Amino acid sequence: xxxxxxxxxxxxxxxxxxxxxxxxxxxxxxxxxxxxxxxxxxxxxxxxxxxxxxxxxxxxxxxxxxxxxxxxxxxxxxxxxxxxxxxxxxxxxxxxxxxxxxxxxxxxxxxxxxxxxxxxxxxxxxxxxxxxxxxxxxxxxxxxxxxxxxxxxxxxxxxxxxxxxxxxxxxxxxxxxxxxxxxxxxxxxxxxxxxxxxxxxxxxxxxxxxxxxxxxxxxxxxxxxxxxxxxxxxxxxxxxxxxxxxxxxxxxxxxxxxxxxxxxxxxxxxxxxxxxxxxxxxxxxxxxxxxxxxxxxxxxxxxxxxx
Length: 307
Description:
Layout: H1 3-29, H2 35-42, H3 45-67, H4 70-73, H5 79-91, H6 98-118, H7 129-152, H8 155-186, H9 188-193, H10 195-217, H11 220-243, H12 252-274, E1 290-291, E2 297-298
Antiparallel strand pairs: 1-2
């Protein structure tokens, strides 16, 4: 087991959780669409600080992918939901509930079983564009479904749809990062000549924009779980399809792995409702919906206390 990769992945998950909370606060405060939304974010020092944190998290994640396989690193990013628990508790001025801690334990246990029993790994560091193409097309279709959902549904559907698109793009970017680290070992020139470098930049930029729009459309408890879960799911699928990574298991081990996956999914769904920051009774008066100049109802989210 590449324990360095495990530790780095957990560190990245922590940084991503902190950054997501701060970014959602700023995105929720921007009452504009299109270029006005982007301009509003770019004027926010807190958003820039959170985005810098995201960048640091990505560098840690990239180092983890350089030290271990996608199948080891990416599932650990789900722990971002676990790390959101203390942030949620402080934001809402309430203690962490026992059931939240229990679900966090379920996720941690499921991850431990998957990593120890499944012994994921193997695969290639790079592959031809032809091997990547089916995965790229599949990710494009999934992101398109998310965007269609965002266009056809109300605020909640818009938030979920955009989060699906964001998580898909982040997942593809994460898988490409594995190859990127291989080219980086060869030097700067091979890195700049590789198509994967520009693929990471493009998918990462699209994912970031979709994530901020999802944060604006709905609370963190709606958008964050969808994107943070899809990221490892998509990247693991791409790692298997494009880089030939595998889970090494036989017989009853597959049943144990399946149960561990079910445990992680159950814990993730539970924390999606309970673990992410939500409105509390003492903030309801300050967040009562009010019509803006265009007649559209807006809801301002409570801001984080100073860290």
